[in-house]
Amino acid sequence: MHPALLSLLVIYCLSSSLSYAAGSPATTNDSNIIRAHGIAMHGTPKYSATFKRFDYTSAKAKTGGHLRLNSQGTFDSLNPYIIKGNTADNLGLLYDSLMVGAADEPFSLYGLVAHTIEYPEHRQWVIFHLRPEAKFHDGTAMTADDVVYTFNLLVEKGNPHYRLYYAEVDNVEALGPHKVKFSFNNPNNKELALTVGQLPILPKHYWETRDFEKSSLDIPLGSGPYRIKSIDAGRKITFTRDANYWARALPVRRGLYNFDEISVTYYRDGNVATEAFKGGDYDYRIENNSKTWATAYSDNFPAIKNGTMKKAEVKHTANAGLQAFIFNQRRTPFNDIELRRAMNYAFDFEWSNQALFYGAYTRNNSYFSNSEFAATGVPTGRELEILEPYRDQLPKSVFTMPYVLPSTDGSGRNRTNLRVAKNILDKAGYRVVDDKLISPQGKAVSLEFLLVSPAFERIVNPYIKALKRLGIDASIRLVDTSQYINRMREFDYDAMVFSYGQSESPGNEQQSYWGSEAADIPGSRNLMGIKNPVIDALITQVIKASSREDLVYSTRALDRVLLHHHFVVPQWYIPVNRLIYWNKFSMPETPPAFDRNNTTGIYTWWYDPQKAAAIKNPSTNNK
User: How far is residue 550's CA from residue 538's CA, in Å, rounded to a whole number?
Assistant: First the structure.
């Protein structure tokens, strides 16, 4: 998974005589060492060293006002970097990182705490030169010691996935108060320079006297555009804009984080949250429920009709990743590929889309939906070259058949696919006794779906009925947010619904998603428990891709192999952000291109007092 910010900046350099060509890094004569304001995974960054702001921000943006958001569930921790606790939303607002990405490029980073990045062409190491003016909220300067301390803290005491994520970092050392060097042990992983560039910086002087591994509601010391103003434990958190924020005038921050306050109110029930929004209790939401989108905010809804509430579908080109029913292969019989393949035939997406989703969705046919990384047809050319060495270790279908999901006419009569599913099970040695499916090992097949959202029950229940027609005893276990998170971290489930977000430049995170080592690390995103040497090798191929073209073909090969192992029953995606908000904001004309769920876009908006004054009392707008 992405998973989270002085006058016009004159880019700092190692020597005042260095200059940069627009959009390109500067290369010195010192063994092809590159020193630049930014770095791209492949090619050169879009924005030159003299850029004033990102294109998706606006010079018209003004500071002020209050943005009121919502979340479902609860929280009991303000530390997002450990495995314990249920952390509050939006805590990324507290912390600055060495560099930040642009939401209109596949994968480029630009200096934030670091004014300059320095690296050789082979990227076997990287040096960050820190801004002397960078400071934490208590006025203490950020130094290279803080960077080294943060890295070691996360690897040694943070969420276990950090150890996997940073496994190929060989050494981190402070070369001076404002100079830090990362050295890598994998010469083929060019992403590492960007991976460590995204490192948030935590204050050593604050954490070295506290228990980092303890889940706590103590308000932490940060350095980012916002501080925590107040918390109502489990119910509400309020952030206040830091008026003395050290980076507010940098190009990477101009036009962003414009609200004086941002608050997040928690609701236990999604329906209650929807009604609270309609009543004016908060300002903005991303609507992920197609029924609510179609019915709760119709054109006849008074606030929509009179313009005090706005509804918009904003198209994006972001990688939609995968949302799916996933099965825990750590448990028998879900480690049986034939059982998983048969269960795919029991899900009637077309009926669900028409009857439940108002035809809003497109079926996920890839782990990288809505992107150039999605595998199609049968492998040819470069993709086939990548797969060929593993032919004897892969299902024959990888090479001979396109991955095509079962489909229906949407009538709800899924008999044909259920017959296919039964034939698959029969050939695999399953049998039905007294209406119960018995595995080749002689045990009845049962399945419990772990859910956190009651809204998903209407989706899972029809699937359960279809599975029962195959003799599979399926049921739902609905739990609260804290239980759900703990059970997910400990891999304590048969099946669940999960959404894998993907970046525009897949890389190291794929190890946490599908890598064998991650399968045994609590808190990793290898929720299916995949342990497959070919998949491990293909992940390595993705990570070491030398060009954008090679990355595309390598990721397609990985996608194809994942699909043909039937680890999941794919669900759906939608290539738009469905926004609903009270009309008290203005925003830039151009939204970020690669911005799924408007996670960056909302922070380019600003409060508009004239629009807000026209709303007055939101509850009266519903009459």
Answer: 12
Going by DSSP bridges, is the β-strand pair 446-451/495-500 parallel, antiparallel, or unpaired? parallel
Q: Tell me the backbone φ, ψ of residue 436, rounded to 5 degrees.
A: -120, 135
- Measured in degrees and rounded to the nearest 5, phi and psi for residue 507 equal -160, -125
Distance (Å, rounded) from C-alpha 314 to C-alpha 301? 20
Domains of the chain with bracketed CATH: 226-317+576-622 (3.40.190.10), 322-573 (3.10.105.10)
Residue 620 has pLDDT above 90, yes or no: no
- Measured distance CA(538)–CA(515) in Å, rounded: 10
* Cβ(599)–Cβ(65) below 8 Å: no
Number of helices (H) and strands (E) in the chain: give both, helices first: 18, 27
Q: In 345-409, at which residue ranges do the beta strands (DSSP E only) sit? A: 362-363
- DSSP-derived secondary structure for 380-392: -HHHHHHHGGGGG
Question: Which amino acid does the sequence have at 209?
Answer: T
pLDDT digits (tens, 9 = 90+) for 335-353: 999 999 999 999 999 999 9
Q: Which DSSP state fits 207?
A: H
**Which residue carries 């005589």 as its tokens?**
17
Q: Sorting pLDDT into bands at 50, 70 and 90, what band is 619?
A: low
Q: Which of 33, 90, 43, 101 is nearest to 67 (CA)?
A: 90
Tokens of 502: 């993907």
* Amino acid at site 605: W
d(CA 443, CA 60): 66
DSSP 618: G
